[in-house]
TrEMBL record:
Belongs to the ABC transporter superfamily. Residues 6-234 form the ABC transporter domain. SUPFAM superfamilies: P-loop containing nucleoside triphosphate hydrolases. Transmembrane segments: none annotated. This is Amino acid/amide ABC transporter ATP-binding protein 2 (HAAT family). PANTHER family: ABC TRANSPORTER ATP-BINDING PROTEIN, HIGH-AFFINITY BRANCHED-CHAIN AMINO ACID TRANSPORT ATP-BINDING PROTEIN LIVF. GO terms for molecular function: ATP binding; ATP hydrolysis activity; branched-chain amino acid transmembrane transporter activity. One of its GO terms (biological process) is L-amino acid transport. The keyword Cell membrane applies. Coiled coil: none annotated.
Length: 237
């Protein structure tokens, strides 16, 4: 058994004539939480989509739990245990919370459903409410809960805290921590909320122009304001 959950090796990917990922390499250990940060447009979303198989590789390879999944479809990768919470919350407004959770699932994973409700008690309270009646934070909980119903071993989350008030961000992060303790799941979290992402993660990579330009222990990087200012360019604290 590979000690690594994910190995991204020299990946190239893009859209039309544009190259976005240009020699992207990083690794995620089993049970590890990796933060991926960087300025807008550097390729973070594309990186997660390439790992999931939504964006095709033009070069390099992706190993998941030791298996080369580079040529597998997104569906096949989901079956292997990869899950993605996309940047846009894809909640169906006309379905209830519970219908949203069960949409697209072939069998009704009762145990997984009750685990998702344990993790997000707010969703349990609102299980019969419509998707259009949820707050931004609740929609984000629903997106994460839905990804968890696929029982992923590695969850890729694209800016899950975006647009949420500080208290709701803390509530979500507490649920993510709880999720890690319960399931031992590995996580890659892309975030603009750098302080919060680094407090949550164990290790961090910084992307620029579609490649990793810096890698460090998350707690160390949180204090390394020179590096953060150089590559992320936002006032931290
Ligand atoms: N579907 C797409 N078609 C064409 N270009 C895209 C598409 N998605 C993203 N891009 C471009 O790819 C680059 C990287 O985008 P993205 O991966 O979304 O970066 P980030 O998530 O770091 O902000 C940007 O220049 C963006 O405009
Ligand atoms: Mg993005």
């Amino acid at each position: 058994m590979s000690a690594l959950m994910l190995e991204v090796k020299s990946v190239q990917a893009g859209y039309g004539p544009m190259t976005v990922l240009d020699g992207l390499s990083f690794q995620v250990a089993r049970g590890e939480r990796l933060a991926m940060i960087g300025r807008n447009g550097v390729g973070k979303t594309t990186a997660l989509r390439a790992v999931m198989g939504v964006v095709p590789l033009r070069g390099g390879s992706i190993l998941f739990a030791g298996e080369d999944v580079s040529r597998l479809s997104a569906h096949q990768r989901a079956e292997r245990g990869l899950g993605l919470v996309p940047q846009t919350r894809d909640v169906f407004p006309s379905l209830t919370v519970e219908e949203n959770l069960l949409a697209g699932l072939k069998r009704r994973p009762k145990a997984a459903l009750s685990e998702a409700y344990d993790l997000f008690p707010r969703l349990a309270e609102r299980r019969h409410n419509g998707g259009n009646q949820l707050s931004g934070g609740e929609q984000q909980m629903l997106s994460v809960a839905r990804a968890l119903l696929g029982q992923p071993r590695l969850l890729l989350m694209d800016e899950p805290l975006e647009g949420l008030a500080p208290l709701i961000r803390q509530e979500l992060l507490a649920a993510f921590r709880h999720m890690g303790q319960q399931t031992g799941i590995s996580v890659v979290i892309v975030e603009q909320q750098v302080d919060e992402a680094l407090a949550y993660a164990g290790r961090a990579v910084i992307l620029d122009h579609g490649a990793v330009v810096h890698e460090d222990d998350a707690a160390k990087l949180a204090k390394d304001t020179d590096t953060l200012e150089r590559w992320v360019g936002m006032a931290v604290h």
